[in-house]
Amino acid sequence: MLLNNIQLKEFHENGFLVIKNFAQKDLCDEILKATQKHIENMIEPIESEQEYLAETNTTKTTLRRLRQVYDREEIFRTWMTNKDIRPILEQILEEKAVLTLAHHNSIMTKMPKDSSRTTWHQDRRYWHFENDNLVSVWLALDEEYLENGLLEFIPGSHKIDFTKEQFDDKTNFLDDNAKNIELIHKAAHTNLEKGDVVLFHCRTLHAANKNITDKAKISFVYTVRGVSNKPLKGTRSDFKEVILD
Ligand SMILES: O=C(O)CCC(=O)C(=O)O
C-alpha cells in the first residue's frame, strides 16, 4: 500500500497523518491478548506514571509504558515488521526504514483513574540521531478519544524552530507561554478505532489527556529512522535495530 499524493502532502504539511482501518482487527485483538500478562504483572522494563509526576505521595506503581516490547512476543514483532506499511514509511522517509528499538518500542497505556496527562512535547527530546528523519507509528488497539487519552497534535509544529524559553527544563512545551498558547489553540485530533494508525514526525508537538473513563486505553508505538540517519555513537539511541528491507 502507498499513500496518495493528498495523504503524503498532509503528512508533510501537518507532521502527522491518520490512516483509518490499516491493521486487521484480529491482529489488534491478538496483540491486546498478548499484552495482558505483561500489563497485569507489570513485567519489566516498564515506565510508570509516578516517574512522570513532579511530586507523589503514593508508593503505588501505575503502569504507563511497557518498554522493549519487540523482544517480548512474536505477535509484537509481527506488527513491528509488517510489510504492508514499509512502502508508506519509505515514502515519508524518502529512503529505506530502520526500526530503532532504543526508544519507542512500546505498548502505551492510559490506565483508568491513575493515568496522568501527557504534556505537549516533541519526541526528539529523547533521541540522539544525526538528523530528525524519524517517524513514529501509533496503532490504536481499541477506541481512542479525548476522554480516554487520545493523542492530540499541533499541525505544522514539526516545521517550527522553537526557542528554549518555550520549554521547561524537562523539555515539556510550556502551556502558559504566550507564543505557545496561540499554537496550542490550533491542536487537532481524530478519534481512533481499532486498527487505525497514526504516523507522526519526531518534531511534531503532541499531548494526551489522562484517562477519565473506567477502561484502560492500550496502544502500540514504534519508531523508524531513515537508513542514512544514523544514531550518534555512544548515546542511548545507539542500540539494537532492525533494517526493514
Ligand atoms: O499516550 C501518551 O501518553 C503519549 C504518548 C507519546 O507521547 C508518545 O508515544 O510519543
Task: Write up this protein.
- The chain has one domain: Jelly Rolls.
- The chain has 5 helices and 11 strands; from the N terminus they run αβαββααββββαββββ.
- The chain has helices at residues 5-14, 25-40, 74-80, 86-93, 178-184; strands spanning 16-19, 46-48, 63-66, 97-110, 118-121, 134-140, 151-153, 197-201, 206-208, 217-226, 241-244.
- Strands 1, 2, 3, 4, 6, 8, 10 and 11 form an 8-stranded antiparallel sheet that branches. A 3-stranded antiparallel sheet has the order 5-9-7, with no helix packed on it.
- It is globular, with a radius of gyration of 17 Å.
- The mean pLDDT is 96.
- Residues 104, 108, 110, 118, 123, 149, 151, 206, 208, 221 line the site of 2-oxoglutaric acid.
Uncertain segments? none
Strand residue percentage: 15-25%
What's the domain count?
A: 1
Helix content: 10-25%
- Class from secondary-structure proportions: alpha+beta
Continuous helix count: 5
Q: How large, in whole angstroms, is the Cα Rg? A: 17 Å
Largest sheet: 8 strands, antiparallel
Mean pLDDT, rounded to whole units? Answer: 96
Measure the end-to-end span.
15 Å
CATH class: Mainly Beta
CATH-defined superfamily? q2cbj1_9rhob like domain
- Tell me which CATH architecture applies here: Sandwich
Number of strands: 11
Look up the CATH topology.
Jelly Rolls
Q: What small molecules does this complex bind?
A: 2-oxoglutaric acid
C-alpha geometry: globular
Order of helices and strands: HEHEEHHEEEEHEEEE
